[in-house]
Write a structure and sequence with these properties.
The termini are far apart. A two-stranded antiparallel ribbon has the order 1-2. Strand 1 and strand 2 form a beta hairpin. It has about 110 residues and is mainly α. The chain is built from 5 helices and 2 strands; from the N terminus they run E-E-H-H-H-H-H. It is an enzyme of class 2 (transferase).
């Protein structure tokens, strides 16, 4: 699977994750999000930027949904739940936001 962005072909693996994460841009994120059926609103970008920050500035950390909910409760308020994240990334907030953010596929199992 590949993504077409501004006349360039961005190579992805069979699961849609970028082969070369350095090719990631916001335009590439838009192409991946379109393929995933995800709308990139302000909250979605907050999650993507959080995931990228954790990965690049915290030794390759890829938070799971439980840790994402904890973080975003502090940012968005106590009403934030796992459901809030799934509304933005219906196929799994941790994996889908990482894919759109140009991060490598996580090998951990889902859940808490």
């Amino acid at each position: 699977m590949n993504y077409e962005v501004n006349g360039n072909t961005i190579e992805a693996d069979a699961n849609g994750y970028l082969v070369n994460g350095e090719e990631w841009t916001e335009e590439v994120a838009g192409a991946i999000a379109a393929a995933e059926g995800v709308e990139l609103n302000d909250k979605a970008w907050e999650i993507i930027n959080y995931m990228r920050d954790e990965f690049y500035n915290n030794n390759g950390n890829q938070p799971n949904e439980r840790n994402m909910v904890k973080h975003f409760k502090d940012v968005w308020g106590p009403e934030t739940s796992q459901n809030s994240l799934y509304q933005l990334f219906p196929r799994g907030p941790a994996k889908q936001s990482s894919k759109i953010g140009g991060l490598p596929e996580t090998r951990r199992k889902g859940g808490y």
